[in-house]
Amino acid sequence: MRKVFMCSLCRNGILGGGLYLDNQSIIYRTQKLTVNEKYRNLVLPLNEIRKITWKWIIFPVATFLMKNGEEYKLIIFNKWRFEKYYQTYMKNGG
Prior knowledge:
Blueprint: E1 3-10, E2 14-21, E3 25-29, H1 37-40, E4 41-45, E5 49-57, E6 59-66, E7 71-76, H2 79-91
């Protein structure tokens, strides 16, 4: 089942959007037309995520380190709920 989170992508500023988590991927979506198309519907397959690190800068900021060397920073407004479902999907072969 897909889980939804409020978030903001940290890329050339803060871009509000939604984060969708399911058993195959994490998807960031925004409706802002001025954003590069790649970031309007950013798909991070779970099997391509090497690691997630967290930092607190007023809000929790997750850095997704991908196997191909790319990094994506997202403010996720419910860190504990996100981690709970992320770990569940990873244990079940995500």
